[in-house]
Amino acid sequence: MASVWLVGIEDEPQRSGEICLFEVFGDAIDRTGPTVGMGIHPFRDPALRDDFSTPRLPIDVTDFHVYAADWRPGPSGLLR
Description:
mainly beta
């Protein structure tokens, strides 16, 4: 597994959420490409909405990649 997660401050139980820039599991790769997880998991934060997907992308995860998040106002804020 390879991943980059931005984790909330969780100074209080209800402020617990994560933003996933990407996650790739070794068993989720086939000849057409990997499934790449991305999005938001609110866990116990009522201010966040679960918005997570795992599209299959036509990329080679053994190559170098640049990942980024573009955070903007809106329902989820995370644009893919």
